[in-house]
Amino acid sequence: MIVIDTSVILATSLNEPEATLFHSLVSQEEILVGWPTLVEARMVLAGRKFSNAGDIVKQLVDLPNVTAVAFGERHYLAAEKAFERFGKGQHPASLNMGDCFSYAVSAVAKAPLLFKGRDFSQTDLKLHPASSTE
Predict the structure, then answer these.
(1) Options 3.30.70.250, 3.40.50.150, 3.40.50.1010, 3.40.50.300; which CATH number does 2-122 get?
(2) pLDDT tens-digit series, residues 79-124
């Protein structure tokens, strides 16, 4: 089981260099993704003029191996901790709000996080080895 960050959804949707690898993992593994992450992905895609942004997110959620995770109190506390320890202005990882949501889902589930970027590699999370830190 792995948790995916918004960056993975964007990389596959925007056909970035990691898209093929990420798509393969998302289609083969049991996936957890927080509802706040899905909202963020939809907003970013809509901002990049994807008129089908909602459909892209719905297709992901409808996959049988994907579970959208409701954000509860345990997630809130984990996200709060993530911001205090690794948030913008607190730490070089400089996690933003969306990053803190992904951090929380990964931390609560005790599942590795799949992501693109350098931010999460500077935290204490268990990271999926296919994550791209370029």
Answers:
(1) 3.40.50.1010
(2) 999 999 999 888 888 899 999 999 999 999 999 999 999 889 999 9
